[in-house]
């Protein structure tokens, strides 16, 4: 990449390119760049209107990319909309609550659900919906538990599962479900341990796999959420304890976990096989890293970008 960055976002576009936005490398910035899988090269594209990191990005049904919130280091309510056809950003309505370390999910109805996050010493339980048609945010049902640095997963029935994270009480094991039809959150089964800085991946069978980040620190345990029963069961443990890693569901149904840290940046990667519930080590990345991103490309490859390894990284790798 042209700029070393962590706490950035990476979004795969309809044309196969990957859009990277914002981030932090000692200071925040508003730059964005595009990865072209055909050439393996990066080009700069339009800058966001504000520098931001620890924000969220969502790809809309029309192919545009929505970014919202974050910090610079002021906590932001602003956002922007990137149009791939022009390579430019347009401003959008502000969030009702400024936040960073939140999540954003594109729903089946085309709206974007933003949930949780943190704003200084404030931990909002609020959630909001972005309507692309009106370019505005409206409040929806509140979370039952304030949380940030949690995970979010869209289930096959359209519900949204959030789990774990942190709040003023510490690290969480609780989980809850958002029903887009009613706008209401309901609690569901809690994970067996508290988790933060971990990953959640939706499997082909509809289950959700969470891994690492026990108590917000590195661990190797993993568990599965069954949407039919609302319960969690333990599954095979990873070979390497880790947190702040990435997890990607591959086209063959396996889950690829990459990097992270357990006192130092990790270079190891491993694959989870849902049919056996076991992990196997696969090829290591060339540069150990955490706080990076992982994006699935149209050809099934996985693009790893940026992060930290004792210093901020501008390197990228393909699996």
From TrEMBL:
Alphabetically ordered keywords of this record: Kelch repeat, Repeat
Signal sequence interval, chain numbering: none
SUPFAM superfamilies in the record: Galactose oxidase, central domain (SSF50965)
Source superkingdom: Eukaryota
Any Pfam family the entry gives: Kelch_1
Gene3D superfamilies according to UniProt: Galactose oxidase/kelch, beta-propeller, Kelch-type beta propeller
InterPro entries, per database record: Gal_Oxase/kelch_b-propeller (IPR011043), Gal_Oxidase_central_sf (IPR037293), Kelch-typ_b-propeller (IPR015915), Kelch_1 (IPR006652)
Official protein name in the record: Uncharacterized protein
Species whose genome carries this gene: Adineta steineri
């Amino acid at each position: 990449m042209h700029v070393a960055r962590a706490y950035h976002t990476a979004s795969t576009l309809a044309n196969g390119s990957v859009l990277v936005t914002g981030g932090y490398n000692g200071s925040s910035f508003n730059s964005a760049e595009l990865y072209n899988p055909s050439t393996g090269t990066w080009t700069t594209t339009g800058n966001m209107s504000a520098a931001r990191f620890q924000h969220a990005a969502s790809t809309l049904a029309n192919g545009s990319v929505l970014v919202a919130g974050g910090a610079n280091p002021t906590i932001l309510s602003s956002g922007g909309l990137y149009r791939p056809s022009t390579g430019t950003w347009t401003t959008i309505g502000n969030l009702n609550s400024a936040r960073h370390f939140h999540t954003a999910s594109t729903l089946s109805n085309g709206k974007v659900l933003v949930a949780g996050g943190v704003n200084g010493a404030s931990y909002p339980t609020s959630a909001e919906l972005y309507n692309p048609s009106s370019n505005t945010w409206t409040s929806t049902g509140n979370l039952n538990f304030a949380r940030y640095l949690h995970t979010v997963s869209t289930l096959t029935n359209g519900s949204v599962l959030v789990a774990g994270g942190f709040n003023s009480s510490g690290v969480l094991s609780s989980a809850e479900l958002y029903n887009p039809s009613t706008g209401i959150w309901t609690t569901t089964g809690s994970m067996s341990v508290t988790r933060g800085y971990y990953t959640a991946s939706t499997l082909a069978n509809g289950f959700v796999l969470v891994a690492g980040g026990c108590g917000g620190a590195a661990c190797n345990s993993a568990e599965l959420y069954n949407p039919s029963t609302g319960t969690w069961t333990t599954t095979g443990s990873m070979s390497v304890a880790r947190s702040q890693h990435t997890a990607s569901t591959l086209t063959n149904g396996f889950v690829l976990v990459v990097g992270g840290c357990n006192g130092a940046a990790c270079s190891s990667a491993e694959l989870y096989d849902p049919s056996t519930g076991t992990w196997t080590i696969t090829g290591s990345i060339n540069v150990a890293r955490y706080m990076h991103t992982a994006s699935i490309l149209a050809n099934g490859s996985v693009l790893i970008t940026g992060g930290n390894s004792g210093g901020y990284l501008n390197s990228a790798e393909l699996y």
